[in-house]
Each structure stands twice: as C-alpha cells, then as structure tokens.
Amino acid sequence: MTYKKFNDRVEEILYGGDYNPEQWPEEIWEEDMKLLKEANINEVTLNVFSWASIQPSEDEYDFRRLDKIMNLVRKNGLKVMLATSTAAHPPWMAHRHPDVLRTEFDGKKRKFGGRHNSCPNSPTYRKYAPLLAKKLAERYKDYDNIVAWHISNEYGGVCCCENCEKAFRLWLKDKYKTLDNLNYAWNTEFWGHHFYDWDEIVIPDLRSEFFAWNRTQFQGMSLDYFRFNSDSIFRNYQDEYREIKKITPDIPITTNLMGFYEDLDYRKWAKYMDFVSWDNYPSNECGPAEIAMSHDLMRGIHNGDSFVLMEQTPSVTNWLPYNALKRPGIMRLWSYQAMAHGADCIQFFQMRRTRGACEALHGAVIDHVGTNNTRVYREVKQLGLELHKLKGEILGSRLDSKVAIYFDWNNWYALRVSAGPSINIDYKNEILCYYRALFSEHIDVDIIGPSDPLDNYKILIAPMMFMSQDGYYDKVKKFVSDGGTFVATYLTGMIDENYLFKLGGYPGEYKEVLGLWVEESDALPEDKANSFIYDGTKYPAKLICDLTHLDKEDDCLSVYEEDFYKGMPVVSRHEFNKGKAYYIGTHSSSEFYRKLVHNLCVEQDIKPIIDISALDDPEQIEVTARENYNGKFIFVLNHSDKDIEISLPQNGTVLLSEEHIENGHRIKIKAHDLLIYKV
Ligand SMILES: [Zn+2]
Predict the structure, then answer these.
(1) Which domains are seen in the chain, by residue range?
(2) Three-state SS across 439-463?
(3) Is residue 154 among the annotated active site residues?
(4) How far is the CA of 116 from the centre of ligand 1 (A)?
(5) Does this model's pTM top 0.90?
C-alpha cells in the first residue's frame, strides 16, 4: 500500500478555515492574527468571495487589498488555501452580460443575486472565471505558504437557459453521433417523440418533460440532462484548473465538495482533483453512522487517499429550521471522526462571524463579542493544541477495508427519476441501512464506484444497483468466482445506461451469479409489511417485495410469510465457483441488516477492529483504523452520553495522553470523548 499526503510539503495537521478579513476594517486584522494564533490555528482559506472587488470591470483588476491580506498572514506564519472567488460573479457582469445569469428548472430567468449564480455554459463566465484564476496564480505563485488552490466554492445547481440548451445538443451529438442512435437510446417512439433535427431537442425541465421536480416523462433524456449539467459545471472547474496548473504545477488544486450531493457526479470530478476536500454540515437528525458514511464516500472517490475537511461549523449553522448548537465536546468529537475516516486537515467556516447577510448567525471561531472568552473559542483552542501535539504522524495514512459498498451517481439519477415502483424508493437510505450495520459491527468500509478495483475486498454490497454500468457485471462475476461475497437487493440490474430495461428477466446478467430471476415486484404502502424468518428471527419485509424464482431450491434462506406470494424466496444465497452471491428481495429493519452483515463477516472471517459488541448500543461507538509507515492508528469514538470501558487488543500507545497500554488492558472513554491508539 502506498501512502499519500494531500500535499508533500505539509508536515503537520493543518487547522484553520475560511477567513474573510475583507468584510472587516483593517484595524481588526491584527487582532484576528493574535486570536487565531492563540487558538493554535495554522492555516486560513482566503479569497472565497471577492470577485466583485478584485475585478471592477472587464479589464481592470485590483489586488491591493488581497496583497495586504496575503502579506499579513504570511508574516504571521499561516499557511493558505487560496480560493479563486468564482462562485459568485460581480453585479456589473450580470448587468452588462446577462448570459452569465442562470435560468431555473421551471424556466425562470434569474436576475443578479445570491451565489452559485453563473450559467456554466455562459461565454462570459467561461471567459472571465479562468482569466481571474490565471491572474491570481500569476500574482501569488511565489508565496511559499500556499498549500493548495481552492477553485470556486461548493459547486452545484442546474441551469436551463438557451446557452445550456445549445450546449446540450452538442453534448448529445458527441455522445450519440446520429439521431438514430439518440432516438433508440431515448425510446422516442413512445408518445411520438421521434427527432428529425438536433434543434428539435429541448431541455427536459418543468416546461417540457417534467410535471413535478422529480417526475419526468422521459427518463433517458432526463438522465442525460443531469449528466450534461454535471459535466458543464465540471468543465468550469477544469477551465480554472488548467490555467492554474500551467503557472503553479506543484501546488495541489481542489474544490470543496458536499458529500452525498445529488447534482454532481463527484466520482468523475475526482479524477481532476489533486485531493478531495469537502464540507461536513450534518442535519440535527444525522447519527454518527450517516456522517461517517459521507466521509467514506468522499475518501472513496479519490482511491481511498486522505482528504481535507474543508468546512464544518465550530458551533451552529444558520439554514436549518432549528439550528441547534453543537453541544460541548461535539465539535472536537466530529473533527476526530473526520480524521478517523481519512481527513488530514480540520477546518471551519468561519474564522470571524460576519456582521450582515444570511450567514451572520452561522458559528465562527471568533464570535460577534470579538474576544477569546467564549465556549466555542476555548473548544477550538483546545482542539488546536491537541492537533499540534499529534504532529504529522498520521498524515497520509489509509484505511484497509475488506468490505466495500457500491454507490454510483448515475444510478442515483436513474432512481431519482424512475416512474415506479414506489415513491418511497430512497437509494441513499438503502445504502445507509447496510452501512449502519457494518458501522455497528466496527468494521471499516470503503464506498466505491464502477471503476474501482475489487481485489482488496472480501465482501461487496451493492444495494439497489438498478442501473449497472456496462462491463460491471464481468467484474462482479470475477470477484465472486475468486471467492468474494456479493450482495444484491431488490431493484438490481434492471436498466442499461440509457434507462432501457433489460429483456429476458431481471436482474439482467446478474441472474447468472445470483442464480435466480425476478418476475414481479410488489410495492407496499408505508403502513403495510410482509414478513420473513431469517436465521431464526422474524423480520419485516417492507417497501418492495420481489417475487423471485431460484435456479436451485436449496439456495433459499427465507420466504415470505403472507399474501399470495407466501412461500416464495425473499433472502437467497447462491454459490458461484469459489464465492457466494446473496439476494435480498426486500427492505427490512435495522436488526435484520445487523444480523445479515454479522453473518457475512463471520463467513468471510472479517473481524471487528476491536470487539466491543457487548456494549449497550454499538452504533454509538465508532471504531476505525488508519495505517501508514509510522504504524497503525486505531480510533475509538464514544458518541454516546455514557462513559464506556473497553479492552485494547494489542500493546500500544494512547496518542493524546502518551500512556503506554499492555495487551488486554481496560481503558475508560468518557461520554463524547475518544482515543487514538497507536500499535
Ligand atoms: Zn445556462
């Protein structure tokens, strides 16, 4: 295994975040420097939203204020992630060049305002955004404290303007070459949609094929528009990336992603990112497993390399209906949680709480009171001290997971627009059900996509793989043949990449390895459930019940207990060469998923990192292991409100206390506390 830091020149854990001194009078800047250094902050992200002030008109640039800020932070020994400011265009640009404005999904043309407000196919935006990136790179290329470029900010959204429509036709021409191919792929004979000219094609939005936000009448066409929109915005990123790379080839480049964000196919993006960075803003309802799953997704899109936690709030967000404070210790715990899943850098939004507009109630290291005398500041300072003590020992270390969960954005798009079988189909939630079970078993998981190799894994779980990418079946077949365990569920292998349904029985080619075919699928309303007995316990069958025929009767592990399909298989296991393929034909309870993955792991001899299954609620205790040339680092995080006691399996050192522990020694972890154990 090779271990890769996000930047070879970084020798310590970077700690800091978004700093916007331009929103404040200069008199306050020196005070900021004092307070940031006192909080053990060693890095700031600068220039995220300054386009309008840096560029007052088409051919005027004014870097004087940014020069001052850059010199100030360099003088104070802070590292910099320098942003390009292109996530919000200046008002003058919208006024003089309205092509830069977006058109919404319902056809409404926007006026100037907000952020993420530029049409990705606007000639104006495509001219001036990379030009600004180039000017910034030229001006600041010799600042040796720049550790990364941060392009734009939280890319996202969709545009449906005329420029996008024209660009969509070109994208389609490039993809399909002929209208015959396109008509076939979109099945346009349905409802008489045959196209004779590329110009007849319009954007599938609320003015055309959609009749509600997620309800389209032409799935293949809509899927292509999602892909096109993701590609268009991705091209904006690439425009800037190329300009910067020409000037500073040795400084890594990133943009901050947003975890399970539906609109952009991040896996495609990650190929053009020198490292992944992302913003972690879980809702109040998110449990530790769901947050962990997002970290694993973000690590997974970049070959499992360590990543940067670009943003989190130190205390509170401002956009939720109820913006609960992070309780004492939670910011620290969640920061280490990011690290436990691969983060090499912990950052906040924001350093000083802004005075006006919509983020004035968003948490910050320095609050409106303006002093170091706050709970949040003290917690930030304490964490900074700890990260400083950890030095850079952990940087670049990786998780060595034996279990992978398959997740694909194209499949997400397809399920999002699927007309039937149930409006309650929820791809992310189905993934989470299996993930939570593994999380509770204290087993490391990688979240992988179609192009990732399977060699390192013993178990591959692919919930709801409705669309299977071309050629993926061959990988799965080899994986199982070689001894792997494959798990498929209801809604697997039904469509190709164009949303054309497979003929000859579901789940398409996967019939072979699973040893079955699915004849029908029954969608149950929320208040209805069937049931089945698995491994001696009764579990509910909810949401979808597949009516399945097995090639071999002996493969059946559970049958439905009710309705006209009583006695038909719901859980099956088929041996295929050296491996096994499971089919779970329904959605069930968390107890079922726990039992299933426990059995799968036993069967494959995958053991928990630390066996603490006897604890009251294993889902509140998180365990991961990272490894590099310096050793193996076991993270144990106590998310519960109670103190726990665990046995440590090997001799090692607790990093923050530097206490040496002998094999089998019991150690207490307080509520919301953690330990990092080096063995
Ligand atoms: Zn547009």
Answers:
(1) 14-159+233-390 (3.20.20.80), 162-223 (no CATH), 403-603 (3.40.50.880), 618-678 (2.60.40.1180)
(2) HHCCCCEEEECCCCCCCCCCEEEEC
(3) yes
(4) 12
(5) yes
